[in-house]
Structure formats: structure tokens, C-alpha cells
Amino acid sequence: MKFLVLNGPNLNMLGIREPGIYGKSTFSDLLNLLEETAREEGLELEQYQSNHEGCLVDKIQEAYGKVDGIVINPAAYTHTSVAILDALKAVSIPAVEVHISDVDAREPFRQISYPGLACIKTIKGQGLDGYRQAILYLKQYLS
Ligand code: CA2
Hints:
The protein has one domain: Dehydroquinase, class II (Rossmann fold). 37% of the residues lie in helices and 18% in strands. The protein is built from five helices and five strands; from the N terminus they run βααβαβαββα. β3, α4 and β4 form a beta-alpha-beta unit. Residues 10-11, 13-14, 16-18, 22, 73, 75-76, 78, 99-101, 103, 110 line the site of ligand CA2.
């Protein structure tokens, strides 16, 4: 089983600022957690982070026919991107949306998710562990 983990803008800055919202862990900690989870679960996993909406759309399109499941934290594009929503719908690969923070408890504009409309599940407010939970959920869903 092959999974693609996508992270949107500024998530590569994790741990550098706003630890009160996103925790103290760094992006490199996240990459280690993904690698460890994939190893434990016997999965092939590719990760990709971009600050550019079109690059995330390209990566979703490239996954067509090659990837069994997508874990996506679109970051700020969550609240604006119909392009990412349409890409997820176009490839029709089961996808789980992850948010490190509890977006429901934040500003009203963070309570809208366009990509989430094409996802089978959304995990929010669980910190980095949300990514591990998303991988386990997808694995179970596809088994
Ligand atoms: O909670 C999440 O995972 C978010 O997707 C994170 C996004 C935010 O725009 C979403 O509303 C919720 C922001 C990611 C930027 O991360 C930062 C990292 C370091 C310093 C500041 C922001």
C-alpha cells in the first residue's frame, strides 16, 4: 500500500513560531514520525511539502494510478482552495484531511474547508499525532 502525505504552506516552519497553537515539534520531527509510522505499518510513504497551490495540485494529479491513499494538511489553502478540492475529486483517491490545531476553536474563516469536502475524514486538534491517526485510518479503510 502506498500513501502520499501532503503539507501546505508554512508547515515547514513548524516549531519555529506559534508553539502555543502548533506545539514545539519541528517539521523534521513530523518527517521522522511519518517514516516511523510507515515502517511500523509496513507501508510505502512519500511526503511532499509546498508553499505553492499549483505544486500541490500537480502532486495530487501525479498520484493518480500510483497512490492508494492521501493524507493532506493543506494549511492556509484549506480555507481558500477550490483547486485542491477539484484535484482530489479528479483523482478520486481516498484522502484524509489533518489539522494540527483545533481549527473549530479558532477564527471563523478557519472553519471552512474546501479540500475537506473531498475527504473521507478530517482529524483536527491532535497535534502531529493526527498524521499517524490519519495513516492508520486510511490503512484500515483500504484493507
Ligand atoms: O492546524 C493546522 O494544521 C493548519 O492547517 C495550519 C495552518 C493554518 O493556516 C490552518 O488554518 C490550520 C498554518 C500552518 C502554518 O504553520 C506555522 C508554523 C510556524 C509558525 C506559524 C505558522
